[in-house]
Amino acid sequence: MAKKSKKQQSGGTPATVALTAADVTYTVHAYDHDPSHPSYGQEAAEAMGVSPDRVFKTLVADVDGTLTVAVVPVAGQLDLKALAAAVGGKRSAMADPALAERTTGYVRGGISPLGQRKKLPTVLDASAAAHATICVSAGRRGLEVELSPEDLQKLTGAVLAPIGR
Predict the structure, then answer these.
(1) What single string gives the DSSP state of each residue in 22-76?
(2) Of 123, 114, 131, nearest to 54 (Cα)?
(3) Is pLDDT at 2 greater than 70 in this prediction?
(4) 14-56: per-residue pLDDT in tens?
């Protein structure tokens, strides 16, 4: 993986700027986003030629009144009960999309777990630990960032838990 310099990232997203500032090794993957594709995450996996179990989607849920980020493989779904349990909560539901966009500073389909406007509690699915690198949104549709799950966990303060199904 290539390390991007701050100079290369002057026009980057908040996610890539955060990665560069943290001096983390990562690779950016850009592809032409097709607005008619039924799944942002599946589209990313197909466009990059990466197994869907290594491409993770970023979802925002409401756990007992607190917005919480869940990062799960695009090939599966988020288990809302497991997410609540992972952060010591009782109930969770998907957050209102407009609220998720306002809070994170990203648009739906491009929400990154990195560089969010407001730092939210984050849970990374335990399956990420099985991979040397994973891909997550770099902050806009058609742009992914590949990094180690350990670096993602460290930068987001994420809890590692089995939240996907």
Answers:
(1) TT---EEEE----TT-S-HHHHHHHHHT--TTTBEEEEEEEETTEEEEEEEETTS
(2) 131
(3) no
(4) 999 999 999 999 999 888 877 777 777 788 888 888 888 999 9
| Average of per-residue pLDDT values in the chain | 88
Q: What are phi and psi of 126, to 5 degrees?
A: -60, -25
Q: Are 97 and 129 in contact (CB under 8 A)?
A: no
Nearest to 88 by CA among 103, 71, 72, 68: 68
Residue 138, classed as helix, strand or coil, is strand
C-alpha–C-alpha distance, residues 147 and 71, integer Å: 14
In the chain, the N- to C-terminal Cα span, in Å, equals: 29
**Residue where the block lists tokens 């349990």:** 85
Residue type, 115: G
Provide the CB-side half-sphere exposure for 45 (13 A, CA).
Answer: 17
